[in-house]
Amino acid sequence: MKLVFENFNQLEQLHPDLSKRLREFTAGDGFWLEEEITVTPLKEYAEDQLEQLSDAFGLDDMDTSIFPNPIEYVDVEKFSKALADTLDESYYYYDEPTQLVLHTEYSW
To answer: What is the pTM of this model?
Structure first.
């Protein structure tokens, strides 16, 4: 389940170990400390990305009697792992121990 924290302090109060790893990853202060931080399980994040891709290309509106929707054949587990390896680390942090993706609108 996706969670949104008001700022880093709220994340730190509720998830001290996760926030400590995030601070080690960012190694600096910035605007992001006062901004919302979205925390999403990796699999849910990957499913959201696949849904956005499907919407962008109109795959849900395809006539599946002629051509199957390729998104339905994606191995979500495999895609999740590949996605974690390619996240833009300026805005995303993947926490491997918890398999959570953290995101902010400001770069870390």
So the answer is: 0.88
